[in-house]
Design a protein that fits this description.
Layout lengths: L1 E5 L8 H14 L4 E5 L5 H5 L8 H5 L7 E2 L5 E4 L8 H5 L8 H6 L7 E5 L6 H10 L1 E7 L2 H20 L5 E9 L4 H14 L3 E7 L2 H5 L7 H4 L4 H15 L5
Parallel strand pairs: 1-5, 1-6, 2-4, 2-5, 6-7, 7-8
Antiparallel strand pairs: 3-4
Helix pairs in contact: 1-11
């Protein structure tokens, strides 16, 4: 059972796109997969065209939540709701507030992979995703400001290790890459130089079809499986599977 939190406090880096499409291709490859949308903006939920009465808000409230079976074999989803926006305030006084999701997921353990999409911040919901999963995949847009944001994320990793005894195992995937742009090539070179094999080999290209798919409530595998973005996410899922036992 492998749990991966998709995290980056910087918005617009392809976080939800990665959470949705990685989940889909893991399921297509035969892995029983659960996608949890933990973002009050509900982007992963709408991107999959899913709706449900029981959401990740209920999960964070300690309720029993039955994941929704998607139209893709092996893929199950716990959607988000706007109620999550108040969860940070509601959890603030809880003594075990950083481990609520981890405790709730003990009731849901029938999946080979659990992928958690998080909000674009480093609040309680994101911390819960990190403590529940311990494996974190960070989408990094191939631009300067995305790299600058990583230092804040690393400080949170250090705090989790020191204060909560959570040992984060981090990997990075380069997104929105355009090989024609010098800045993209420089960012890739710098990341690989400083982070080594923590940067995955797969690179997600900038691709219009990836951007269009959520407006139709479809993952890229259903919207345009032959486009460059779809092929890249299929490769990403294969690389993630190849890391089993080494991540």
């Amino acid at each position: 059972m492998i749990r991966i939190a998709i995290c980056n406090q910087k918005g617009g880096v392809g976080k939800t796109t990665t959470a949705v499409n990685l989940s889909v291709y893991l399921a297509i490859s035969g892995k029983r997969t659960l996608l949890i949308d933990l973002d009050p903006q509900c982007a992963a939920t709408s991107g999959m065209g899913i709706d449900g009465d029981k959401t990740s808000y209920n999960l964070m409230s300690g309720d029993n939540v039955k994941p929704i079976e998607s139209s893709i074999k092996n893929l199950f989803i716990i959607p988000a709701s706007i109620d999550l926006a108040g969860a940070e305030i509601e959890l603030a006084s809880e003594p075990n507030r950083d481990f609520v999701l981890k405790e709730s997921l003990k009731k849901i353990n029938r999946y080979e992979y659990t992928i958690v999409d998080t909000p674009p911040n480093l609040g309680i919901l994101t911390i819960n995703a990190m403590t529940a999963c311990e494996r974190v995949l960070v989408p990094v847009q191939a631009e300067y400001y995305s790299m600058e944001a990583l230092s804040r994320l690393w400080r949170v990793f250090d705090l989790l290790k020191k204060r909560l005894k959570v040992d984060i195992k981090d990997k990075y995937v380069i997104t929105m890459f355009d090989s024609r742009l010098k800045i993209c090539r420089e960012v890739e070179m710098e990341l690989r130089k400083n982070l080594g094999d923590r940067v995955l080999k797969t690179i997600i290209p900038r691709n219009a079809r990836l951007a269009e798919a959520p407006s139709y409530g479809k993952p890229i595998a259903l919207y345009d499986p032959k486009c460059r973005g779809a092929k890249a996410y299929k490769l990403l899922s294969e690389e993630v599977i190849s890391l089993e036992g080494r991540w």
